Amino acid sequence: YCDFLSFPVGDVWECTAGADKSCGSSQFCPAGQVDSYLYQLMTEMEQMAARPEIRGEMVSSVFIGGGTPSLLHPDQFLRLAEAVRKHFPLEDGFEWTIEANPGTITKEKLSAWKEGGINRLSIGLQSASDEELKLLGRIHTFGEFQENYGLARSMGFDNINIDLMSALPGQSVTTWEHTLRTVLALKPEHISAYSLIVEPETPFYEEYGAMAEAVAEYGEYEAMPEKLLKQFPEEKRIPGERADREMYHLTKTMLQEAGFHRYEISNYALPGYECRHNRGYWDGTGYLGLGLGAASLIGQKRFSVIREKDRYMAYSAADFGAGRHLEDVQELTLREQMEEFMFLGLRLTEGVSESWFLERFGRELPEVYGPVLQKAASEGLMEKTDVCDSRGAGKNGADTRWRLTDQGLDVSNTVLAEFLLDERNRED
Known about the structure:
Helix 1 (31-49) runs parallel beside helix 2 (74-87), helix 2 (74-87) runs parallel beside helix 3 (107-116) and helix 6 (173-185) runs parallel beside helix 9 (241-257). The chain has helices spanning 31-49, 74-87, 107-116, 130-136, 142-154, 173-185, 203-218, 226-229, 241-257, 276-283, 309-314, 317-322, 334-345, 354-361, 365-378, 406-410, 412-417; strands at 4-8, 59-65, 90-100, 120-126, 160-166, 190-195, 261-264, 267-269, 287-289, 295-298, 301-305, 326-331, 352-353, 382-388, 398-404. The protein is of the alpha/beta class. The two termini are 22 Å apart. A hairpin with a 2-residue loop joins strand 10 and strand 11. The protein is globular, with a radius of gyration of 23 Å.
């Protein structure tokens, strides 16, 4: 179950030397503070790797994300990489990703990443428009991204993901199309394309929360009362619902025409370049998260690391070994496991497998979800397909799958909500 190992490193990156302003901090912090955090992180790693339920499990994917890990100095990264190899057995052909923000990538860092084992980069571009990047609060320009991307290619990185975001402040369908065309011309192996969600209790919400709520209520700006409309400067408006849907469909069309396979609601890859790490989450594979705020799923137990940096930094090796740094520990019930299987699996365009469901839960998928599946199918939101797959548990790999149709993917949140089991099917 410990196939996936994450390092969501959280708030510590606010205090990296020459801090990334997108973290909300511009104050210089000594590199020694990051060194102290890395020491704690590696202590936690050693102690968690020794737990009976984790010890010896092969790791097929490592993902260094959260905050801006590309701010690590090369020697700091190499220490982290050495610790990973020391404490966890890595499968042959493992995938090792690091998230990087444009403007933080240098030749020296790329060289260290290569030396340490990184074989996949995920670069957070978001937009090819400098105006949109500025409104989004990013510190990089598109020119800096181009320079970083070209440098990575020149140093042999041949598996690169580019993160994009639509429905940004000041964005139009035309500027989004420009971003897509510009990025496609660079020929990355993978593109993640998300629509902006203005989350409550974030700095971004303070500026755009009222606007997002108004769009959610009225749909389009022309439907808003004039008094309300005047509160939102035209040049900073987030797109209305109609433009948002146009961007969504434009993304799907342009990327598929360029040869990208849409394997998950928001993720597109060239053949052979699906992100193994992210697929693991959607397939329900176990994962271990280390560092501030990191979440884990080991067996049927879910837990996360505390988010309070001062507490985390005060723990001893014995504390980590005893799990005192963990919170929100939850043993998933059978009902919750089945719900998660459907929520996550249906994000994949290949859908969920009847044989996998039976093998995992000892119950037939139609027995548990028959009425929901049939209702969604009758509305054109889901479809049933018979496949021959080497991964299938049926005879000769034969299997039956249920997946969202294109129409169902468009309204996926609504469809997925139907897979919450009611009291009659509760299996606690």
